[in-house]
Design brief:
With 398 residues, the chain is of the alpha/beta class. The chain folds into 3 domains: 172 residues, 3-Layer(aba) Sandwich (Rossmann fold), CATH 3.40.50.620; 176 residues, Argininosuccinate synthetase, chain A, domain 2 (Alpha-Beta Complex), CATH 3.90.1260.10; 32 residues, no CATH class. The chain has 14 helices and 14 strands. The protein has a 5-stranded parallel beta sheet, with helices on both faces. It has a 5-stranded antiparallel beta sheet with strand order 10-9-8-13-14. It has a 4-stranded antiparallel beta sheet with strand order 6-7-12-11. A hairpin with a 2-residue loop joins β6 and β7. α8 packs across α9. The longest helix has 19 residues. The radius of gyration is 25 Å and the shape is elongated. Bound molecules: arginine (ARG).
Amino acid sequence: MPKRVVLAYSGGLDTSVAVRWLMEEMGVEVIAVAVDVGQGGDFEAIRQRALAAGAAEAVVVDAKQEYARDFVVPALRANAKYEGKYPLVSALSRPLIVKHLVAAARQHGADAVSHGCTGKGNDQVRFEVSTRALAPDLEVIAPVRTWGLTREQSIEYAQQHGIPITVTKKSPYSIDQNLWGRTIECGILEDPWAQPPEEVFELTTPTASDPVEVVIRFEQGVPVALDDKPLPLDQLIGEVTRIVGGYGWGRLDMVENRRVGIKSREVYECPGSLALLMAHADLEDLTLERDLAHEKSRLEPRYAELVYDGLWYSPLKQALDAFVEKSQEFVTGEVRLRCEMPGRCFVAGRRSEVGLYDYSLATYEAADAFRHADADGFVRLWGLGVETWAARQARRNP
Ligand code: ARG
């Protein structure tokens, strides 16, 4: 039986109740760890709430830069979107949170980690598979999956135990947020036919009026500057999110296949990530050699699946990272994004000092460098097999 448990603490109802539940039902000491991945909120208040709920220790980790550098960057370089659409917001943050849970477990001599996920979602998979990958010796406890309390019962439990919670007729939606975007589930959204009400959106409320252009500079597939201003990546993502979101662009409404076999209706707001992914992929079109580009695009959906399925720390994911990193050697240059009302954001131009676009080859103007005579033999040989086949058909059916 575990004695000391490190709990991934969000400050919400479930994880607050989990602190006390772990103490009462499992007889363990709880170390609460809140990881800041850019979700916003008052982390000192969150820390105090964990202590008030009964945690022996409450720690806040500012992991925004680490998240951007070690989790967002590989996913961006891999153009990773699950089912071709979802930029993996929640899926990307869980392996990082687990990394910090495990570190805290080592530091505090804990023998288990715990999370507040339900049994229906993907996040339990990501928490647990990541924990087993990093620390096979640690036990995992999933109170919410075990206790079977309804929301009302959880509120009651909190009140009975004097756990401070802030659930005043709160929204029916389940939200997860970090630097890479915001996910919205539950309530009316569980009806896939119902259009998401405007109230669910926070990052993509249209407020802009005039068009705007922003130039994003990439170096080896990493965004490093906006309009010539170098920025740390977490801030750069925040800026792009703010600018593009102001045009109401970056919403997704999709029915998605969860790892646990459930189809679910998901609403996402990802103005920053989707804009950066669009710009990055566009710069690759300019800078990647054809075969490399084609092979990479075949591997990208696989990469996204692995991340979605909780296999961030798997050997295949690591091997794909090596491929993707090598592919980014020349993904350097600038992409000009233009935003216009209502709800438009697009690539207006791109340039690179190491691009493969060669005007003298591509132009239809007279004085070009292309050797037209070479095309003659090339095309003849290219089609030789088909020509031979067609000639035989003609002989057999005159
Ligand atoms: N369906 C998304 C995913 O699996 C969003 C999950 C949101 N998680 C949450 N705890 N609210 O990545």
